[in-house]
Design goal:
The protein is globular. The protein has 10 helices and no strands. Helices cover 78% and strands 0% of the residues. The chain has 204 residues and is an all-alpha fold.
Length: 204
Amino acid sequence: MGLSLVRPLEARIASAEKERAVVEQLPVVERLAFLGTNVGYWVVAAMMVVWHYTLGASEHGWPCSLDQLGDFCHAVCFGRVGGIPAVPALLMVAVATASTAMHTAQMRLCPTCLFTAAQVKWCHEPRTVAALRKLDVSCVLVVLVAGGSCVGWVNAVGFLAYVFPLHVLSIFARLRGHGRAYLHLHGLWHLGSAYGIYRMLKPP
């Protein structure tokens, strides 16, 4: 059983090693432009925090009516903990942070002016990239679950279904070593999924 758990991890690290070789062949400008596509998540996160404090935690209709899914929906959509923004706003901050961190490490762009040489080396390690990728995907799934609890599962999936093929194609491009195609496809996924999440959780 131990070997069965180790092998998938080794496979992910080997894939990340291959990915590193592909990334290093891409111009830094292109990698920075790709990293910049994460701005969509940060814009949506900022808008949600502003909405929460502008509309108020008890404002009806953001993004569900109280009789739609009951107390759980109310807690997810409007809940506060000691003045902290509503759960969806916090989740979007988590998504933006996880995606930016993962792609910074993946693109080998950890800033040497902020970290020591040892920290930068750790940031660029395939094992680090693999762990951050798992965190990134987990955050998106949690947002989808939270959105589904507010607007309904069919609607939540529908908001992202039209851009999900870009994500799938970007994975194929990455696994086959097509670095530039991966940047284009996954960058479009960032922007499209940010817009989908915005539509999912925006006030009416």
